[in-house]
Write the structure tokens for this entry.
Amino acid sequence: MMRNNFDKQLEMLNNELIEMGSLCEEAISFVSSALETGDRGYLTKIHDADTKIDEKERDIENLCFRLLLQQQPVAKDLREISSALKMISDMERIGDQAGDIGEILSFTDAKNFESKIHLIDMAKATIKMVTDSVNSFVKKDLSMAYDVINYDDTVDKLFIKVKSEISSLMQKDSSVFQYALDFLMIAKYFERIGDHAVNIAEWVIFSLTGIHKSNEL
């Protein structure tokens, strides 16, 4: 009976993680739309999504602590719960970085910038990474977790492409220096979001295998 109750709470944990992951996807999607359209109405939506992500982190944290304190988890359960705690920390940072991009966009005109299309590609790539990293945890899919880690190369290559475009633009027209730096910072935030998705995938691998990259020699 106690195990049945514990399993129900673990299922609740999975559902909460899916919701938090969806909020992260939503925040990045709003960033992408703000970049693509220049519509500042998306900035409020980015902020609201970040706030919801923070709230969801607290809810999941409390659920994890209840599972640890009120139940009697075995080793595999402990790995799953501790991994979830690490994952929500990375998801909270993803929300923060989407918020940071929104802040930059609040004083930067996103229209007619040469790198804009590749920034949107970075947004789409990071959404995929966040979605797949959370799904790999819920589905206990080791292969999907490794795919997320490998897909980070796509985001890194796009970052290099954006840097090259910005460098070329500044050489042609030095008056866009500050403007270009803002967009370079946005690209850097997207790269960091990809890194956090990789962290999530690494904790999924730990939850399933008991092995984390930090312990590998």
The longest helix spans residues 2-37. The chain has a mean pLDDT of 90. The domain at 2-212 is CATH 1.20.58.220 (Methane Monooxygenase Hydroxylase; Chain G, domain 1).
